[in-house]
């Protein structure tokens, strides 16, 4: 239950809020901001969180951790929306949906504030009269677009303050026909401005209009016998048409649309935007999200629309969203209208071509999320191995790690399991099972000694490479016996540690006291994965061995089941598993087994299934 004093303190603060719009900040006991929200009426909105019997899973989870409250009043709910975005970026609260990357995405800038503009890549958007296009989530895509513009349009590429006091000799780009050479001073500002307008239409996605204008200019130049200019225009038309042929037509009405799809796994998510310009699919943008554990699609898209579209420089006419995201976006649309002087339409198609495009966006989001999760795991594995080398003082990076565990049921049917991780990932070909030869009953240290001795002897005899690290599932006693086995084979140089279950502590050979490390670190996560996998692998094998043994003894102990009938049962079912899964009627089909005997066998087998090993 929430501490009464905490609740009373928060309730006293709420009394001072009044009905103003603004943002509220929930904090935990350590003073960390764990959630930022906005409200039209702060007092009523914040008070709603103090009901412990919330239906909303996110609010219930937040209620458990909230300890203090802060707020910032604003004049309007729209201002609160913008402030909310700023506060989320500042505090990165765990319960808020947020863009995972806090980096600044690149934009393409057309420096229209200059007499002779150029196009370049930048991460800073300035209010200086220049035109910006983006953001681009993929830097390579931004650079490819810039390179394409430089190939198609002969705009200047060298940073100069034009016009120059004294004309200079043009660079190689001029002689290659890739620049009009404004540094020479022989091109008018008006002619150069026409080229800039072409680039702007290109970046705005108005390629059909651009091609039509270029064709008109080409015909006009030809009529005036300006054949060189007509030739330049023709080349531009051909290059733009080649590009358009590669772009899929997805909208016959030729509109500018964004199609949004989402994929989510636990706390992580990915939103993909398919950009349709002039009816053609021109590009894809992918954004990583976090904080999705307690949020539905409506909240995820509400946060994303605010963070993305209030920072773009060019709006589509329509944004298509999945039906699961349908909700109230009035404040967002009001903010868009105020900033851009125009608004966008939000649509939630349930069928037809746009629904198919939404599924395509969702599929792309799922692929992007899968790729990101795999890349993250790979980075974590690399970090984990480096941490192991550093924290355990290993001579080399532990690329190959083996872990051993003992499994038995109250001392019976003891087995050992060995699993191998290579480059931080399970390597199934290196997994091994061991039936104990020298020990019975409960003697985990002795069994660890046996299995390590057998494993290392095999590696030496077969001249196979030794592991970079051996992990023993257990404490000091088990680790000491494992070290004895290695020393007896003159292999005491192999790094070896013990991982105790209760406190997740690490033991080193020859040291009585364990060491504690951050249990959430990549290193400890890797060690726990190893230990848990060894335990799973061992328990599965031990259960199989015990059931085989128990089945044999059960068939032996059932009255009226002799060698002949036992053989008939196993012959009929072909495997012991099918015997244990058999029904009464199936058992009656075996020659020599009647209803009464079938009932005895079935009852004994069901009693066996109820027994589970530790």
Description:
With 614 residues, this protein is α+β, with helices and mostly antiparallel strands. Helices cover 45% and strands 17% of the residues. The protein has 19 helices and 19 strands. Helix 4 crosses helix 11 (330-340), helix 12 packs across helix 15 and helix 15 (522-557) runs antiparallel to helix 19. The chain is elongated and about 110 Å long. The two termini are 34 Å apart. The mean pLDDT is 84. Keywords: Cytoplasm, DNA damage, DNA excision, DNA repair, Excision nuclease, SOS response. Interacts with UvrB in an incision complex.
Question: Which band does the percent of strand residues land in?
Answer: 15-25%
Could you give the distance between the termini?
Answer: 34 Å
Q: How many separate helices?
A: 19
What is the overall shape? elongated
Assembly of the depicted chains: single chain
Instruction: Tell me roughly what share of residues is in helical segments.
Output: 40-55%
Main sheet overview: 7 strands, mixed
Overall mean confidence score, pLDDT: 84
Task: Provide a compact summary of the structure.
With 614 residues, this protein is an alpha+beta fold. It is built from 19 helices and 19 strands. The model has no long low-confidence stretch (mean pLDDT 84).
Mind sketching the topology for me?
Elements: H1 4-15, E1 22-27, E2 33-39, H2 42-47, H3 57-65, E3 68-73, H4 77-91, E4 98-99, E5 107-110, E6 119-122, E7 131-133, H5 139-152, H6 172-175, H7 189-203, H8 207-223, H9 227-245, E8 257-265, E9 268-277, E10 280-290, H10 297-309, E11 318-320, H11 330-340, E12 345-347, H12 353-391, E13 400-409, E14 412-422, E15 425-426, E16 432-435, H13 444-461, E17 469-473, H14 476-488, E18 496-499, E19 506-507, H15 522-557, H16 563-573, H17 576-580, H18 584-588, H19 595-609
Parallel strand pairs: 8-11, 11-12, 13-17, 17-18
Antiparallel strand pairs: 1-2, 1-3, 4-10, 5-6, 5-7, 8-9, 9-10, 13-14, 14-15, 14-16, 18-19
């Amino acid at each position: 239950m929430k501490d009464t004093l905490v609740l009373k303190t928060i309730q006293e603060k709420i009394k001072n809020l009044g009905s103003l719009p603004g943002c509220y900040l929930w904090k935990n006991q350590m003073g960390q901001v764990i959630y930022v929200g906005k409200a039209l009426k702060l007092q009523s909105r914040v008070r709603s969180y103090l009901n412990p019997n919330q239906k909303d899973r996110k609010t219930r989870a937040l209620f458990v951790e909230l300890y203090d409250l802060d707020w910032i009043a604003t004049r309007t709910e729209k201002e609160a929306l913008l402030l909310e975005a700023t506060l989320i970026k500042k505090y990165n609260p765990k319960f808020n949906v947020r863009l995972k990357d806090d980096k600044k995405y690149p934009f393409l800038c057309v420096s229209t504030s200059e007499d002779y503009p150029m196009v370049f890549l930048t991460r800073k958007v300035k209010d200086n009269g220049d035109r910006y296009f983006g953001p681009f989530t993929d830097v390579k895509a931004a650079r490819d677009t810039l390179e394409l513009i430089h190939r198609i349009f002969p705009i200047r590429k060298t940073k100069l303050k034009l016009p120059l006091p004294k004309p200079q000799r043009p660079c190689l780009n001029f002689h290659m026909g890739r620049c009009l050479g404004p540094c020479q001073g022989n091109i008018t500002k008006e002619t150069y401005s026409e080229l800039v307008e072409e680039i702007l239409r290109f970046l705005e996605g108005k390629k059909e209009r651009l091609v039509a204008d270029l064709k008109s200019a080409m015909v006009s130049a030809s009529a005036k016998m300006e054949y060189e200019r007509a030739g330049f225009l023709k080349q531009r038309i051909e290059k733009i048409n080649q590009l358009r042929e590669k772009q899929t037509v997805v909208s016959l009405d030729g509109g500018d649309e964004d199609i949004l799809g989402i994929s989510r796994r636990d706390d992580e998510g990915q939103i993909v935007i398919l950009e349709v310009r002039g009816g053609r699919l021109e590009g894809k943008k992918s954004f990583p999200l976090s904080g999705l554990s307690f949020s539905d699609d409506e909240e995820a898209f509400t946060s994303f629309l605010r963070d993305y579209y209030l920072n773009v420089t060019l709006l589509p006419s329509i944004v298509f969203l999945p039906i699961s995201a349908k909700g109230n976006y009035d404040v967002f649309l009001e903010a868009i209208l105020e900033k851009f002087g125009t608004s966008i339409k939000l649509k939630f198609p349930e069928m037809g071509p746009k629904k198919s495009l939404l599924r395509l966006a969702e599929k792309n989001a799922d692929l992007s999320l899968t790729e990101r999760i795999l890349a993250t795991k790979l980075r974590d594995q690399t970090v984990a191995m480096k941490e192991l080398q550093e924290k355990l003082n290993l001579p080399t990076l532990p690329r190959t790690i083996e872990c051993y565990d003992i499994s038995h049921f109250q001392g019976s049917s003891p087995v050992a399991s060995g699993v191998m991780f290579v480059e931080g990932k399970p390597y199934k070909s290196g997994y091994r099972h061991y039936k104990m030869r020298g020990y019975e009953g409960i003697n985990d240290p002795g069994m660890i000694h046996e299995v390590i001795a057998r494993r290392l002897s095999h590696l030496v005899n077969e001249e196979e490479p030794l592991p970079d690290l051996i992990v023993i599932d257990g404490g000091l006693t088990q680790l000491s016996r494992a070290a004895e086995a290695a020393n007896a084979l003159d292999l005491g140089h192999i790094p070896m540690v013990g991982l105790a279950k209760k406190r997740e502590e690490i033991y080193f050979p020859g040291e009585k006291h364990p060491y504690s490390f951050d249990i959430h670190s990549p290193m400890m996560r890797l060690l726990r994965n190893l230990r848990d996998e060894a335990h799973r692998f061992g328990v599965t094998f031990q259960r199989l061995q015990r059931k085989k043994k128990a089945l044999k003894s059960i068939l032996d102990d059932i009255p009226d089941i002799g060698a002949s009938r036992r053989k008939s049962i196993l012959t009929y079912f072909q495997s012991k598993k099918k015997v244990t899964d058999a029904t009464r009627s199936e058992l009656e089909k075996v020659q020599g087994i009647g209803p009464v005997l079938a009932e005895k066998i079935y009852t004994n087998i069901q009693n066996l299934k109820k027994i589970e090993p530790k």
